[in-house]
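Request:
Um, any thoughts?
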Amino acid sequence: MARLSMSEVAFSLLAFGLVTGCQQSRPAEQEQAGLTASDELLLASAKVALPAPGTTPADLPDPDSQGAQLVVQYCASCHGLPSPGAHSATDWPRYVRRMWVRTEGLPDRFEIAVPSRGERQVILEYLAANALQVGTDLPAGPGRDLFVQTCEGCHELPDPKSHSPDDWTALVRRMMDHMQDVLGQTLTPDQYSQVAMYLESASRR
């Protein structure tokens, strides 16, 4: 088996999403692995862009559809399964294009399948049809500014009416867990209550 260069290793890990948190490893371990500062930065950047863990094929909208099955087939081979609601319909083409560029650049020995042109169209149509519903006219109320400030840093602002009042408490909690995993920070209990109560109230209007 041919030996990979460090740049190939870094790119491969970036494409697969196999990031172990280089910022937390000891300098001696980094030196032993032969990673340069540039390699470490590349690996760290991959972790920021990865889908949050926890989504299963059964969680996908219309899981038996061709689009859902293609998402599982191609996307889950490299990283956690993405939820279509993680991004808006206008954002998804940019994200999936970036993934296709990464996988197309992998050496053939990794045997990672790349979707055909027709399959890519089906994937994009499926993601767009089930994408995050964006809020265009958010009502005023306590917690609105905190909601905007917190959530727009990662994605477009969801329409509060896209979920029922009873769903928002659990959804905000899940987003807090994602923030902790990806950004290493999250909301305080008081901030969590403000955002959840705002979304519950706004969803009723």
About this structure: The first helix runs from residue 6 to 16. The radius of gyration is 19 Å.
